[in-house]
Each structure stands twice: as C-alpha cells, then as structure tokens.
Design goal:
The chain contains 6 helices and 4 strands, in the order αββαααβααβ. The chain is mainly alpha-helical and 222 residues long. α3 packs antiparallel against α6 and α5 packs antiparallel against α6.
C-alpha cells in the first residue's frame, strides 16, 4: 500500500471518528467550503465534501454503526471483570476496529468510478473471521429448546443490548443498500449480520456457557 493509499484511508477513518465524537464546525452564512470533519446544522458532508441531510440514509447508517460500537464498548466493560471471558473480549476489541473500517467504507460511497487509490473496505476475510469466532464459542454452549430472554447476568444483558443495537444498524444498512442510487459492498452487509449472531452467542457464553440463560415461557400470565 502506498503512502497515498494509507493517508486516504486515515482520512476516511478520521472522518468517521469525528462524526462519532460529534465534532462540529461553526455554521457558515455564506457558501464557503465546509471542513472535511464538519457536521453543521445545515447537514453533514460525506468524505467527498458533498452535503447530506442529517437524516439521509447514509448518515443514519454512520450513526447506527457508531451506536453499535458504543454498545459493544459498554459490553466489554461488563465482561472485563472475569478473566475466563478474555477470548470474548479480544473478539469484541477486533470487532470495534472492524466497525471503524465499516464506517470508513460507508464514508466513501462506491460510485463505479476507478479511484486514484484503493479505498478502505470491509472484506470477506473479516466476515470469515467473525464466523470462525461464532463457531468456536458455539461449540461450548448448551443446546437451546426455547428463545432466550435478555439477561441472566449483567455481562450477558450488556451483550444482548449490543446485539439489539447491532440489529438496528443492520436495518439501516439494509435500507441504504436498497435505496436507489446507493451502493454498499456485500461483505459490509454480511459482516453486520454476522455480528448480531456473534453477540447472541457471546451472551450465552458468558451466561455460564448457557447454563445461566433465562428461557422464554410462552403465555406466562403470572
């Protein structure tokens, strides 16, 4: 990778980081250029500098990915108390980095034009790695014969909350991918789909490998 490629990827990641942290610029009354890292009341620019309304689908997707990453950060705090969950924490740290890759991917919409550099994209190997973690954690789990209620332990509840937040991010990405004129790489959509599955498996894993799960009782009235 050339230094230009690396710089471009860094800019994309920095833009998403600035969006995630709420970095703002002063509103401008004229048509002066907007800072690359600016999000104003007029709207938020893409990495290319074009303004987008704050509720535009792609901007919604940025925010949903940011929310999922924050929820995973809280889940990591909840599981950090037990060294037996170190493998789960290591996986989640990797996921948090992947989500910044995904944010950078979304910041550079695929237009079909040949770019001057290779943009940072979520790739199939990242999806494969996540699927491997799902398989590894699942091997130790008790089989299920009912739906699981979110909870059982503080750590599991935090992971279930992150799972639900990730599912919302998946819906936003799916909406964006289906929108006319929008394009998202298939690995990006697959990754966010597999992530919610991984968080479900991780929640069961920290619930004493499923022994601490609380199962749904259909029709319970009391």
């Amino acid at each position: 990778m050339s230094s230009t490629d690396s710089d471009s990827d860094s800019v994309a990641a920095a833009w998403f980081a600035a969006f995630s942290s709420g970095a703002l610029a002063q509103d401008s009354a004229d048509d002066s250029p907007v800072s690359l890292l600016a999000v104003t009341s007029i709207g938020a620019p893409t990495i290319t500098g074009a303004r987008n309304p704050r509720n535009e689908l792609r901007i919604e997707a940025y925010g949903a990915i940011d929310e999922a990453n924050c929820a995973i950060g809280l889940a990591r705090l909840a599981i950090s108390t037990n060294p037996e969950w170190a493998r789960v924490d290591a996986t989640l740290l990797c996921v948090q980095n992947d989500l910044f890759d995904l944010g950078a991917d979304l910041c550079l919409p695929a237009t079909g034009a040949r770019p001057d550099y290779e943009p940072l994209r979520v790739v199939q190997s990242q999806v494969d790695r996540l699927e491997s973690r799902i398989a590894e954690l699942s091997m130790d789990l008790q089989s299920l014969n009912s739906f699981v209620l979110p909870g059982g332990s503080a750590a599991a509840a935090a992971l279930h909350s992150a799972r639900a937040t990730t599912l919302r991010a998946e819906r936003r990405l799916t909406d964006l991918a289906a929108a006319q004129g929008e394009t998202i790489g298939e690995p990006a959509v697959r990754y966010i789909n597999r992530l919610s599955q991984m968080l479900f498996v991780a929640a069961r894993y920290v619930n004493r490998k499923g022994e601490g799960d609380i199962l749904w009782t259909p029709g319970q009235k009391a």
